[in-house]
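Dear H.,

Thanks for agreeing to be a second pair of eyes. The structure we're designing against is below in token form, covering all 125 positions.
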């Protein structure tokens, strides 16, 4: 299977791994087909994502995608985070092998779920 150098880099040196103790938005998403799970922790201030970390119990592609996603949204607004698609994350990594494209779903889905829940709880439209 051919992974891009960028995928390998994010897999070998994942950014923003771990847990944010005082996170105010958390989401956990699982992939029923493989059993892998991603948990995202966000520290949101107003409408800005100040910090984001992840814990991924999954394949290398899922770890790389999680890492890439956190880099794309740190310091961005909630609306900008919602605009990030699964395909954009995979594109930023230079693509994923076709059989691993489903792995790109988890991180974006977890991010969107955390942001939407936060917006709902705080009355942000
Ligand atoms: Fe499960 Fe990649 S094989 S997310």
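And this is the sequence the design step returned. I haven't edited it by hand at all.
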């Amino acid at each position: 299977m051919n992974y891009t150098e960028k995928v390998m880099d994010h897999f070998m040196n994942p950014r923003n791994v771990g847990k944010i103790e005082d996170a105010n938005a958390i989401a956990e998403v699982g992939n029923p087909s493989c059993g892998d799970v991603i948990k995202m922790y966000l520290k949101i201030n107003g409408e800005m994502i100040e910090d984001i970390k992840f814990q991924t119990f999954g394949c290398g592609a899922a770890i790389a995608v999680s890492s890439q996603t956190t880099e794309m949204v740190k310091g961005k607004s909630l609306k900008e985070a919602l605009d990030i698609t699964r395909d954009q994350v995979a594109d930023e990594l230079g693509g994923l092998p076709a059989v691993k494209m489903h792995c790109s779903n988890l991180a974006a889905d977890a991010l969107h779920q955390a942001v939407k829940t936060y917006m709902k709880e705080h009355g942000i439209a």
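Two observations from my side: The pocket of FE2/S2 (inorganic) cluster is lined by residues 31, 34, 36, 58-59, 61-62, 103, 106 (CB under 6 Å). The chain has a mean pLDDT of 95.

Warmly,
E.
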